[in-house]
Amino acid sequence: MKIHDMPEILVRTEPGKARVLMRDSTHETELPALWLRARSPDPSQRDAVTGQRLMNPHLLPDDLYLLGARFEKDMLHLAFSDGFAGSFDPQELLRGSVLSTGLPATRAWRSDLQRKPLYVWADLQNDEVLYQALKDFIELGFLLVNETPTQADSILHIAERFGIVRTTNFGDFFEVYSRPESNDLAYRPVALGPHTDNPYRTPVPGIQILQCLQNETSGGFSTLVDSLAVAEQVRLEDPEGFALLSRIPVRFEYRDATTHLVSVKPMVELDGEGHMTGVHYSPRLDDIPLMSQEDTVRYHRARKRLGTLFEDPQYELRFRLNAGEMMMFDNNRVLHGRTSFNPAEGHRQLQGCYVDRDGPRSHYLVLQRKFG
Q: Within 10 A of 133 (CB to CB), how many other CB atoms are there?
């Protein structure tokens, strides 16, 4: 039975055995009995409220097969060799044939990005506006928000609109202003090149919010760079070098009087399907492993090209944050930085916090039921 423009489900039966196939315009794919059996929505197999299984598909016999298959109105009735029989929705089977998070696809961008994802805080109290903002965030990896409240801890209230705050050794939130002899260069007036925060953690904080409370200086411009756009260029120029960046582990370390954190991971982050999701990049904190002279040079060339493009103006968004303005960005995907500033000109103070990466995604999927 055809589902709009989707493939169709077919049934083929033989004495004592049956086959279920998915057919599109080019080929047919058999749906294995084990795959089908695990997707049963029957109340004896799956809890109706949570959608969680009541049976363990890992323990099914590996020689499981279909005894029978037939359509009954809009449902597919299947009988299995382990004695179970039940009805299946063909549309659900077709949807389940594709691994998908249900989230919008990412869109790589450069400095010529036409429509910036800019919102006003008051508007984001409307769920429909929030839904659009979350879509922009998932696609582009960042949001800009103006007219936010600037009380001492208002950033936590803001963060809770998007997800769950991640507490670190820096606290629930942290203050970014010039402090001599501080334990991180972020608290000095020096320029900060494009980087991701806390690559020495496991897991790395997924999202960062930086909110301006006060800015009386002429410098201190904020920068954002999309690692997906940069890495794609590296992959086109040097596929072997890109593969090294995604495979060779790098050691990241942070330590002060009360904290010592170490993590070992590749610089380029891939998901379970091998798609790039971001980078772990901080030249102040990384150490490459001991390799042969040849491998070290090859790795260095790829890393050098990556770092050069991160600082190329054609990939960089540069803007000034004023009081009440904030940026929220995917810390794995979007690198951030800052130009230098002169504290003698006046006070520049930002607040920052981290949010778990899955919070905005969950909010989006929930709101999609209403607005999607």
A: 24
